[in-house]
Fold this protein.
Amino acid sequence: QVQPVESGGGLVEPGESLRLSCTASGVIFVSKVMAWYRQTPGKQREFVAGIYSNGNTVYADSVKGRFTISRLHVQNTVYLQMNSLKPEDTAVYYCKLTSQYGDAWGQGTQVTVSS
């Protein structure tokens, strides 16, 4: 079974930066896509950024130019560098891994942007 684990969340002020990490472990797998989603209370989970095995990236319009997703294939680790954070970025951030076994979600990490 594949299990992604996130880390790096916390409390920051508007304009500051954070870097989230997600490392997947478990059975041998081939990751096709690794992505970040976020969710706030009472709202649906929304897509933030994704990176394919070939390195192509996709971003939600709300984070383009501020967030950068990257990955280390060997370690099955994906990062989300978040710059110029805004209060509306406050959410629980989840990592999703898509492999030959389907989708696997992490437990989430809280990001709070507040002065």
